[in-house]
Amino acid sequence: MVGERRIEAPQGRKPMGLLKLLFDTNVFYACVDIAPGRRHPDSAVATRLLELLNRHGGEAWLTPATRRDIDRTSNTELRSASNLLMRQWLTLDPLTVPRRLLEAARYELPLGDNDDVDSHMLAALDAESVDFLITQDKALRRHAGYAGLGDRTMTITDGIELLERLLGESTPLPTVRPCAAYGLPAEDPLFERLRAGDSGFDVWFRRARQEHRPCFAIDGESGLDAVAILKTENDPRHGIGGTVLKISSFVVADGAEGAKREELLLKSVLDYAAGEEHDRIYIEIYPHHDRLVPLLEQFGFVDGGARTDRGEAVLCKDRRPAAADAQLDPLAYHRRFGPPALLVRNAFVVPIQPRWHDALFPEARPQPELFAPLAPGNAMLKAYLSGSNIQRVEAGALILFYRSEDRRAVTAVGVVDGVLRSNDPVEIRRFVGARTVYSDVQVHALCAGDRGVLAILFRHDRVLSAPWPLDEMVQADVVRDAPQTIQEVTNEAALSWIRQRLEAPR
């Protein structure tokens, strides 16, 4: 199990099977630096991605639909150069796009030319002919999210950060800082995009600054990478009652989508709502808005049908479950009302070594500013790999992370999203996707065991403000001794003890 078993690089063996990345048309253009009359704006980062892919020993692929896409361009010189360069790339065989995939991805039929090309890339990903899809197309990433392929669909920056982690290189972690709106520079380039689409932006932003509205920001090298501006509302709007938190603005700069910035920013918003005990959270957003809509839906935001005068959808998240909601399954309950929100039906104690605990739960470190944790560890959707042979872990189960060696206490809590047992490192890599904090060498070493790897996708519910020490858990019959592998909590009295500490409203 990672966290209880030392990992060494296998001698004389490649860490994994070939990594196959599928590139959409525009990323292909960036890789070969084709743009009418100028350099492609993404050529530098695309070159970095190819450099890392070559170091990894991986392959870059295209679909036949990309050739159709290229042939539709009216620029003869661009079309001719692109077709010549395509002959140097690997191309998949033609695939039939399943209708159930089109429906899951929420495509409108009949498909337009662009959606037809995109659907073939999703079909290649769905058929597992490639590991990950690289695209800058926000609409394509949105459809991939609806189809359950969001973790395997990435921007160029996402792909760079994934490859750095797979190669065992450190990835700088963006940090989210709280601030008041008056602390945001009005002239920041991030706000220019908002001004361009809203003539009343400056009036609204001035009011937000005057009212000292709470914000969360992620700083980049040349300005803001992302920002969320919040507002507490006590007067019901759109039929939303109670103490309500409005997400007035939630924006990520173009080219800054990597390192799970949207998820990190949303995590800060949800933590703030929990701390301020808001009943509900809502956002007004255009339904076609890039990949933010499926991300919000993953965390319980629901489109109730209300629309603003500008045609925006109103997505609302309820944080106050009713008595009848106790009939939901634990995973649906957590998605709808949390984090933090739990229904404890079954529970597992997962021992984890300090170094892996620090990677997965950087906010639990005594002095987090002294470390540079991996981006997925600081987000809400995470992955944990174990060599345990336990069979009963399933979606919705509660997992209690027991930090061994130094703390000897349960420090963090999660809800299982999905599980896979396999001794195929490529299958594990695809399953954990962008959630990974593990390098290829580490995954390969785990898969070398006879039992294979138990990969657990989970949703981080909370870090315990007061960890549960081992002697307290032994007294409550949660465990009998320091756990050496994943243990199920089977005693009903112990489950009741856990419920009393976790199910109460915060």
How are the secondary structure elements laid out?
Layout: E1 20-23, H1 25-31, H2 43-56, E2 59-62, H3 64-71, H4 76-86, E3 90-91, H5 99-104, H6 113-126, E4 132-134, H7 138-146, E5 153-154, H8 156-166, E6 176-180, H9 189-197, H10 201-210, E7 214-220, E8 223-233, E9 244-252, H11 261-275, E10 280-285, H12 292-298, E11 302-307, E12 313-318, H13 330-337, E13 347-352, H14 354-360, E14 381-386, E15 398-403, E16 409-422, H15 425-432, H16 440-447, E17 453-469, H17 470-475, E18 487-489, H18 492-502
Parallel strand pairs: 1-2, 1-4, 2-3, 4-5, 9-10, 13-15
Antiparallel strand pairs: 6-7, 7-8, 8-9, 10-12, 11-12, 13-18, 14-17, 15-16, 16-17
Helix pairs in contact: 1-2, 2-8, 3-6
Provide an overview of this structure.
- The chain contains 18 helices and 18 strands.
- Residues 1-15 and 368-375 have low confidence and may be disordered.
- β4, α7 (138-146) and β5 form a beta-alpha-beta unit.
- The protein is an alpha/beta fold.
- 33% of the residues lie in helices and 23% in strands.
- A 7-stranded mixed beta sheet has the order 6-7-8-9-10-12-11, covered by helices on one side.
Instruction: Choose one word for the global shape.
Output: globular
| Structural class determined from secondary elements | alpha/beta
List the strand order in the largest sheet: 6-7-8-9-10-12-11
What is the distance, rounded to the nearest whole angstrom, between the alpha carbons of the first and last residues?
33 Å
